[in-house]
Amino acid sequence: MTMAKVSFTFKTALFNKERTISVSVRPIPWNERRKTHGRAFVFCALRPEDTTGQRSPPYGIKGENAENDRAWKLYNKEEVHINKTILEAAFAEIAANHPELGLPRLEKATHSRYAGCTCPCSPGFIIHGVYREVYIEVADDKVEAAAEPVSVSVPYPSFAQV
Questions:
Q1: Torsions phi, psi for 39 (to 5 deg)
Q2: Helix, strand, coil % (nearest 5) of the chain?
Q3: What element of type H or E holds 41?
Q4: β partners of residue 135
Q5: Which residues lie closer than 8 Å to 33 by C-beta, 6 or more apart?
Q6: Rounded CA separation 61/67 (Å)
Q7: Which residues contact 16 (CB under 8 A, 6 or more apart)?
Q8: What residue ranges do the domains of the chain occupy?
Q9: pLDDT at residue 58, rounded to an integer
Q10: Residue 103: helix, strand or coil by DSSP?
């Protein structure tokens, strides 16, 4: 199974300027299909601090502080909203201008912390009616150029005669 990839730029209300979006699509083989639908994963450096100014709450143990738990729930809800907005915009662009990827318009996408695994290590969206894995990556303008490589010379240990 080959992975199709396309890149394009677009601007949404979330971004103050155009961003480059890379979308990779891989059909799910019959032997790997779950009994459910396809998956979509959005990789974006945008956080609620960047869009709404909402700061992340302090870290703590869930259940220890009810007020902090509510603050984290609101923060995570905003983060999911950012990713879903990017997902919807990317699917609309693909359906309109990139039919070679074979993705229809997004009808329903549900966020799941367990989209990629049986543990909450890879959250994403379950896309109903589409048997493909979709990876959406938003280019981050904050990424700086890599520094010059540094060469380090480490001498080999000498083994003394016993």
A1: -130, 150
A2: 25, 25, 50
A3: strand 38-43
A4: 24, 41
A5: 131
A6: 12
A7: none
A8: 4-138
A9: 87
A10: coil
Exposure letters 117-144 (e unless 16+ CB within 10 A, then b): eeeeeebbbbbeebbbbbbbbbeeeeee
Which residue type sits at 136? I
Rounded distance, CA 47 to CA 123, Å? Answer: 15
User: What torsion do the CA atoms of 39, 44, 50, 53 make, to the nearest 10 degrees?
Assistant: 30
End-to-end CA distance of the chain: 58
Taking only the tens place, the pLDDT of each residue in 40-85 is 888 887 777 777 777 888 888 889 999 999 988 888 888 888 888 8
Sign of CA dihedral 72, 15, 11, 8: negative
